[in-house]
Amino acid sequence: MQRAALFALSALACAALVLALHLREVSRADAAGYARAQGEASQLAADLSREFQKGKDRALDDAQKRLATERAAADRSRVDADRLREQLRGAERRIAAAPDAAVRKYASTVTELFDACVREYRDVAAAAAGHAADVRTLIAAWPRMPGAPVPDDEGR
Protein backbone atom coordinates (compact mmCIF):
# COMPACT_ATOMS: atom_id res chain seq x y z
CA MET A 1 0.00 0.00 0.00
CA GLN A 2 2.83 2.35 0.78
CA ARG A 3 4.28 1.67 -2.55
CA ALA A 4 0.99 2.53 -4.25
CA ALA A 5 0.67 5.69 -2.16
CA LEU A 6 4.25 6.64 -2.96
CA PHE A 7 3.60 5.97 -6.62
CA ALA A 8 0.39 8.06 -6.49
CA LEU A 9 2.23 10.81 -4.66
CA SER A 10 5.03 10.71 -7.26
CA ALA A 11 2.50 10.84 -10.05
CA LEU A 12 0.79 13.76 -8.34
CA ALA A 13 4.13 15.55 -7.89
CA CYS A 14 4.97 14.97 -11.56
CA ALA A 15 1.56 16.27 -12.58
CA ALA A 16 2.04 19.33 -10.36
CA LEU A 17 5.49 19.90 -11.88
CA VAL A 18 4.12 19.56 -15.41
CA LEU A 19 1.28 21.92 -14.51
CA ALA A 20 3.70 24.45 -12.99
CA LEU A 21 5.94 24.29 -16.06
CA HIS A 22 2.90 24.69 -18.29
CA LEU A 23 1.67 27.66 -16.25
CA ARG A 24 5.12 29.23 -16.42
CA GLU A 25 5.16 28.82 -20.20
CA VAL A 26 1.63 30.24 -20.46
CA SER A 27 2.68 33.12 -18.25
CA ARG A 28 5.72 33.77 -20.45
CA ALA A 29 3.56 33.53 -23.54
CA ASP A 30 1.02 35.89 -21.96
CA ALA A 31 3.79 38.31 -21.07
CA ALA A 32 5.20 38.11 -24.57
CA GLY A 33 1.69 38.47 -26.00
CA TYR A 34 1.02 41.43 -23.73
CA ALA A 35 4.31 43.07 -24.72
CA ARG A 36 3.54 42.42 -28.40
CA ALA A 37 0.00 43.83 -28.02
CA GLN A 38 1.39 46.82 -26.16
CA GLY A 39 3.92 47.41 -28.94
CA GLU A 40 1.21 47.10 -31.59
CA ALA A 41 -1.00 49.53 -29.68
CA SER A 42 1.87 52.00 -29.37
CA GLN A 43 2.57 51.71 -33.10
CA LEU A 44 -1.11 52.20 -33.90
CA ALA A 45 -1.24 55.27 -31.65
CA ALA A 46 1.86 56.68 -33.35
CA ASP A 47 0.38 56.01 -36.81
CA LEU A 48 -2.90 57.67 -35.84
CA SER A 49 -1.04 60.62 -34.39
CA ARG A 50 0.92 61.04 -37.64
CA GLU A 51 -2.29 60.85 -39.68
CA PHE A 52 -4.00 63.41 -37.42
CA GLN A 53 -0.95 65.67 -37.74
CA LYS A 54 -1.00 65.34 -41.54
CA GLY A 55 -4.72 66.19 -41.58
CA LYS A 56 -4.14 69.22 -39.35
CA ASP A 57 -1.21 70.37 -41.50
CA ARG A 58 -3.31 69.98 -44.67
CA ALA A 59 -6.14 71.95 -43.10
CA LEU A 60 -3.75 74.73 -42.08
CA ASP A 61 -2.17 74.83 -45.55
CA ASP A 62 -5.62 74.96 -47.16
CA ALA A 63 -6.65 77.74 -44.78
CA GLN A 64 -3.53 79.74 -45.69
CA LYS A 65 -4.28 79.32 -49.41
CA ARG A 66 -7.91 80.38 -48.90
CA LEU A 67 -6.77 83.38 -46.88
CA ALA A 68 -4.36 84.44 -49.64
CA THR A 69 -7.14 84.09 -52.23
CA GLU A 70 -9.56 86.05 -50.05
CA ARG A 71 -6.98 88.80 -49.47
CA ALA A 72 -6.37 89.09 -53.20
CA ALA A 73 -10.13 89.32 -53.83
CA ALA A 74 -10.46 91.95 -51.10
CA ASP A 75 -7.61 93.94 -52.65
CA ARG A 76 -9.28 93.80 -56.08
CA SER A 77 -12.57 94.85 -54.50
CA ARG A 78 -10.86 97.78 -52.78
CA VAL A 79 -9.32 98.93 -56.07
CA ASP A 80 -12.72 98.70 -57.80
CA ALA A 81 -14.39 100.64 -54.98
CA ASP A 82 -11.71 103.34 -55.13
CA ARG A 83 -12.18 103.64 -58.90
CA LEU A 84 -15.98 103.94 -58.50
CA ARG A 85 -15.53 106.51 -55.73
CA GLU A 86 -13.34 108.60 -58.04
CA GLN A 87 -15.95 108.40 -60.80
CA LEU A 88 -18.72 109.44 -58.40
CA ARG A 89 -16.78 112.48 -57.19
CA GLY A 90 -17.21 114.10 -60.59
CA ALA A 91 -20.81 112.93 -61.00
CA GLU A 92 -22.37 116.03 -59.44
CA ARG A 93 -20.57 118.28 -61.92
CA ARG A 94 -21.45 116.04 -64.87
CA ILE A 95 -25.11 115.73 -63.81
CA ALA A 96 -25.50 119.51 -63.60
CA ALA A 97 -24.54 119.81 -67.26
CA ALA A 98 -26.30 116.63 -68.53
CA PRO A 99 -29.61 116.56 -70.39
CA ASP A 100 -32.70 115.45 -68.41
CA ALA A 101 -32.90 112.03 -70.12
CA ALA A 102 -29.30 111.25 -69.13
CA VAL A 103 -30.00 112.29 -65.52
CA ARG A 104 -33.06 110.01 -65.39
CA LYS A 105 -31.04 107.12 -66.86
CA TYR A 106 -28.26 107.79 -64.33
CA ALA A 107 -30.76 107.79 -61.43
CA SER A 108 -32.34 104.55 -62.70
CA THR A 109 -28.93 102.88 -63.03
CA VAL A 110 -27.84 104.01 -59.56
CA THR A 111 -31.10 102.65 -58.09
CA GLU A 112 -30.58 99.27 -59.79
CA LEU A 113 -27.00 99.17 -58.58
CA PHE A 114 -28.05 100.02 -55.04
CA ASP A 115 -30.76 97.32 -55.09
CA ALA A 116 -28.21 94.75 -56.33
CA CYS A 117 -25.83 95.75 -53.52
CA VAL A 118 -28.58 95.40 -50.92
CA ARG A 119 -29.44 91.90 -52.22
CA GLU A 120 -25.77 90.86 -52.10
CA TYR A 121 -25.30 92.22 -48.57
CA ARG A 122 -28.41 90.33 -47.42
CA ASP A 123 -27.10 87.12 -48.99
CA VAL A 124 -23.69 87.60 -47.33
CA ALA A 125 -25.34 88.29 -43.96
CA ALA A 126 -27.52 85.16 -44.26
CA ALA A 127 -24.51 83.02 -45.18
CA ALA A 128 -22.48 84.45 -42.28
CA ALA A 129 -25.32 83.74 -39.84
CA GLY A 130 -25.53 80.16 -41.16
CA HIS A 131 -21.78 79.65 -40.78
CA ALA A 132 -21.86 81.07 -37.25
CA ALA A 133 -24.70 78.69 -36.36
CA ASP A 134 -22.70 75.76 -37.78
CA VAL A 135 -19.67 76.73 -35.70
CA ARG A 136 -21.74 76.99 -32.53
CA THR A 137 -23.29 73.56 -33.26
CA LEU A 138 -19.89 71.94 -33.86
CA ILE A 139 -18.45 73.47 -30.69
CA ALA A 140 -21.42 72.31 -28.63
CA ALA A 141 -21.32 68.79 -30.13
CA TRP A 142 -17.54 68.33 -29.86
CA PRO A 143 -16.65 65.55 -27.38
CA ARG A 144 -15.41 66.77 -23.99
CA MET A 145 -14.00 65.07 -20.96
CA PRO A 146 -16.62 64.48 -18.26
CA GLY A 147 -16.87 67.53 -16.04
CA ALA A 148 -15.26 69.86 -18.59
CA PRO A 149 -17.07 73.18 -18.95
CA VAL A 150 -19.41 73.65 -21.90
CA PRO A 151 -18.10 76.47 -24.13
CA ASP A 152 -20.16 79.60 -24.60
CA ASP A 153 -21.27 81.01 -27.97
CA GLU A 154 -17.75 82.30 -28.62
CA GLY A 155 -16.12 78.91 -27.98
CA ARG A 156 -14.67 79.81 -24.56
Automatic annotation (TrEMBL):
Query: Could you say which residues form the signal peptide?
Result: 1-20
Where does the source fall among the domains of life? Bacteria
Q: Does this UniProt record's set of keywords contain Signal?
A: yes
Please provide the record's keywords in A-Z order.
Signal
The entry's protein name is DUF2514 family protein
